Amino acid sequence: MSEPDIETLIIGAGPAGLTAGYLLSKAGRGVTVIERDPTYVGGISRTVNYKGFLFDIGGHRFFSKAREVVELWNEILPTDFIDRPRLSRIFYGGKFYAYPLRAFEALKNLGVFTSAVCMASYGYAKVFPVRDVKTFHQWVRNNFGEKLFSIFFRTYTEKVWGMSCDEISADWAAQRIKGLSLSAAVIDGVKRSLGLNRKPSAELGQQGGVKTLIESFRYPRKGPGMMWEAAARKLAAQGGTLHMDQSLVSLKRDAKSGVWTVVSKNAKGETTTHTARNVISSAPITELYAALDPKPKSQNHALSLRYRDFITVALIAKLKPGQTDAGFPDNWVYIHDPSVKVGRVQNFLSWSPEMAPPGFACLGLEYFCFEGDGVWTSPDADLIELAKREIGQIGLIDPADVVDASVVRQPKAYPVYDEDYQTHLDAVRADLDANYPGLHLVGRNGMHKYNNQDHAMMTAMLTVENILAGNKRFDVWQVNEDAEYGEAGLSGAEDALKSERLTPKRVAA
After folding, report:
1. What is the domain partition of the chain in residue ranges?
2. What are phi and psi of 337, to 5 degrees?
3. How far are the Cα atoms of 87, 119, 141, 160, 175 from residue 148, in angstroms, in the given order?
């Protein structure tokens, strides 16, 4: 086979794919990115524009302990960040609870008896812990007690994942809420109630901080899509190429030359072929394996990996005369109450005042589902009526004020951490490492890891380092494997820029 057309072909223009493309093109390397979406870059971090109303697919805070990530954000989008307070609550049993919890408010809402039961349950869990922790239920029970698990963890978690907490791996809790326990939450909650915990971001960041207790973050003034649209423009200015409306069809490596042939197609069915020395994939592993030719030995393991999907119903409300916001300050509200199907409500004006035209508010109601189930296949009109009814039941806005709405379906939003996922993922990793040189997995779906945006970017940044060096200097799978890659501090920006650079372990020579 002749020399490849380009050095690196990247599948997917989300945070990981565009980070890799931007850095490779900046280094003068030939790079092409293909993206399935015909309109938006950014993947799940895109910002949808509906008639001038902007909304995220999930809501994306910008904070990180990794200095390299913060520097890259500032480099790509130097003048468009705003600082935003993190304000969120839990809705449960018809009442709102500040999140992170405020001890006295929680005591009042739960009542003395229930609060006492919670503390007794926690004490019992500390004296008689589950020794061999395997499930999310067991992990939370050990750290919070059975009663608090049933109140603040079970319903919402099972809404998100569509499965019992006894079927979810403890890895999920260890990765997402590592370092937080009832004692830490109570101490922090008492300080919040008494106003004693307000520290400069650098101070809190240097203390380490518990990632679930972050109080502020940075945010692009017109949503996270600004970041990735800017990255795409700069990639092109640096000589890279981005092709939209291109779905992966096939992926094959010539064993003799080491060159990859990648075939994609657009919505019309027209195919395009690229040849490349390296392939970086941020596509879901199941979709990557469907395209690989010949089929890998670990095919059955890859196809056993599962995903959770969700729908955003954006409700546009007309504000009353003199009103400047939606009437509540939260960025988002977690809906733990089992009486409604909605799992979370985003308040986009609290993310940025530029997310909606003057006189209007935009709320995003999130419904977690599996692609093809009854929620996923419901007509848009039915989903909008459901969202209006439930927003009224919760009491956040008056459904009569809703004047328009939009529905966005997001497949494969979350990689599922079920009890067998690690076995399947280990088999996939071993097979690809041994038999598919030049194929690099990055990002949330590309690695089947519930990474945050900064973690996804870090996997891409280290993959670029490996490609530029011509060898595997860094084990990309180490990202987000320990507390150093967790979220801590306030916005994370000041702390990160003053910190040592964070990198995972180098691969032993």
Report:
1. 6-46+57-82+222-304+418-498, 101-213, 307-415
2. -70, 125
3. 22, 9, 8, 18, 20
The enclosing H or E element of 88 equals strand 88-92
Q: Which residue has the tokens 């060898």?
A: 471
Assign 161 to helix, strand or coil: helix
Is 86:214 a contact under the CB 8 Å cutoff? yes
**Contact, 360 vs 339, CB < 8 A?**
no
What's the gap between Cα 277 and its chain centre?
30
CATH architecture for residues 6-46+57-82+222-304+418-498: 3-Layer(bba) Sandwich (3.50)
Q: Kindly give the residue spans of alpha helices, DSSP state H, lying in 200-273.
A: 201-206, 225-237
Evaluate if residue 502 carries a pLDDT over 60: no
| β-strand pairing of 247-253 with 47-50 | unpaired
Burial class (CB in 10 A: 0-12, 13-18, 19+), 115: middle
Does the pLDDT value for residue 203 go beyond 50?
Answer: no
pTM above 0.85, yes or no: yes
- The torsion angle over the Cα atoms of residues 495, 501, 507 and 508, rounded to 10 degrees, is -110
**How many Cβ atoms sit within 10 Å of the Cβ of residue 450?**
18
72: phi then psi, degrees, rounded to nearest 5: -70, -40
